[in-house]
Design brief:
The complex is a heterodimer. By secondary structure, chain A is of the alpha/beta class. Chain A is built from 20 helices and 6 strands. In chain A, β2 and β3 form a beta hairpin. Chain B is α/β, with parallel strands linked by helices. Classes of the chains: A alpha/beta, B alpha/beta.
Chain lengths: 503, 300
Amino acid sequence: MSGATGAVDHDDDPPVPDGLGAPILDLLNGFVVELRAAGLPVSLTENLDAMEAVQHIPLEDREAFKYALGATLVKSNSHWRAFETVFEVYFSLRGPEYRLGDEEAEVDGDPGDVEGGERLPGTGGEGRGGGGGGSMNNEELAEALYRALMDGDDAMMRALASQSVRRFAGMEPGRPVGGTYYLYRTLRHLDLDGVLERMLQQSEQTSPERRSPLEDRLARDEYESRIDRLKKEIEAEIRRRLVADRGVEAMARTLRKPLPEDVDFMHATREEMANLRVALHPLTRKLAVRLARKRRHGRKGPLDFRSTVRHSLSYGGVPAEPKFRYPRPAKPEIFVVADISGSVAAFARFTLQLVHAISGQFSKVRSFVFIDGVDEVTRFFEGVEDIGAAIHRVNTEADVVWVDGHSDYGHALEAFWSRWGHEIGPKTTVLLLGDARNNYHASQSWVLSEMAHRARHMYWLNPEPSAYWDTGDSIIGEYGAHCDGVFECRNLRQLERFVDNLA
Amino acid sequence: MAHRFESVADVRSRLAEVNYLADDGIAGVVHLADRLGKPVLVEGPAGTGKTQLAKSVAEMSGARLIRLQCYEGLDESKALYEWNYKKQLLRIQAERNNESAWDDIATDIFSDEFLLERPLLEAIRSTEPVVLLIDEVDRVEVETEALLLEVLSEYQVSIPELGTMEARQIPLVFLTSNNTRELSEALKRRCLFLHVDYPDLEREKEIVLTKVPEVTDALADQITRIVRSLRQLELKKAPSVSETLDWARTLVLLGVEQIDAATATDTINILLKYQSDIARATKELNAQADGTKRPGVPQR
């Protein structure tokens, strides 16, 4: 973070130049404030750069405008999504083709629509000025949509998307529901899965000879990407309408989402999970590179006495040039013991994935998972290149249920101690992962105390916010007393920091 | 200062003339870099034409390309300048018999004549137009990054013995990064940021057609569609543009007109470099594409 967040209000007063009108300036200012609120580190200089940049591009070119702002304000690819969302909200009502239009005249002005109009069934020759798509009934709309998708006609798709939103979303001004609700309502009416099947069948029939599976697959990919595009159009249309209804700032606030590295493991939505998985991959690579580098560039090894004396011969016996041993820092051995019951499963998965991805930095990594029973899962990771698949096997094949499949830390720890406890040695670092919510079972915390005696270090990573610790059935305090440290690990940022310090 | 390019469209068409097909984002940022006089930090997956961008910009504007390849252990004597101490020694030796004062020699041996220019200084002192490419900047250590800062923000190099060398012309600077580590805030703040991703279907097809002229339109279409399919799989290393091109060339050499599953499987090792990826892709490409196996609409 570049710490300029405090200066929000005074950023752009005088130095900002002539070419820009005050409205644009205000808009940009609000835009930057919103970016900062969304967590993007936008510094003062970057803000000024953006102001300067937009003077060099034609303002009516929306894409160029977007890239100019992006290039100056966003300095990390993982922030691009957040930037795009804010941009869409702030500049959604600008640009001729994005004009909302009232009920009738929504398909005018776009040259692509000239032929589009002919293809609209029910749109008479006298034109779209009066009836537009409005006169179509639902079947005709579906038919037109299907055809636009089939032909990959983007202009048509955009027109139809806005048409469908108007018809199906049932948006009412001032109604306090989110955009997803309207999206759901619209998509339910469009039955895109059905459309996809129909498109596939259609293309199957029209192709002259029998198609190979490969071609089928390619066709399916193509249609899926078109449908995806349509969905994006619909989403954008809903957003535009919501912005028009509620105003820019309110909308930006509702759409504000945490950046991938700040997403809370325990409350991530499915989409956020997917983003997290994507974000994790470069993260592990970065971490591995950084750790390897640290190891190589670490301090020199201890003095190599023999070598020093040998080299002193050339200086007549004066040890002028001390020689050091090659540094071989000890690699720790890692035992990961993770709770994989429902509430914390995602967290355990990410940690396992991260630790195994950098397993080269450790002499050995062994993983154990538990719910109320405990099982070793190291074998799933051995010789496997695809960690995702290994995690999947952990979740499906590991034998972790003892009685009822509710977390029982006490029993799981006891079982772990009796089966593998003797393998913990003075080189071992034990990582315990979980929220320590024990469902009021016996805690058996003597196991941890024994373990701490044998192991080199023992850390507990808790995905819960520290404010919730020791509330309800959480007994993290009791367990934590035996550990060398208890850390809150709610998001990738915290997890990364911990692993970095570990190696 | 006169600008190199007229408009975004101008950048785009001139890049196209040297066979680099830029999208709006790329052309826009290059245009801005020229107007604002700021370096561009280009980031993105390997093999998407980051380095090629700098080369093409140099080619199209008729500028000389000066390249600094970064690596671990790069220091200022390799990046900025170095004193030619052998020559300095010779100079001192030559003066030994003369009666000239030490002061004279001292000012003399720290003059231009004894300065070895390294890429950054060279780029700044050049009188003709220059494109400076600082390649894989993420490979240097964080501390070494600081070397670049003065050059990137002020276009000058301070040499204690000589004073400050200011740029004779503002070079266009491109820094590329493969994102193996987070670059420092200070560096990012001084640059325009450009993320180059895999191109979309139409652009990639154009790229294939431009770079491999022998390929037919239908084949190029098929190639890019298969590559797009592959990129949607969860692979360790998705096929890059350069690999797509290699594949297209291979198919042309093999005289393939129409790709079927068997051809794709046989030549897939050109696109994918990991055994697990190959196995996975082969399985996917040969799978019967029935509706039940995959959900109708991509879950993203």
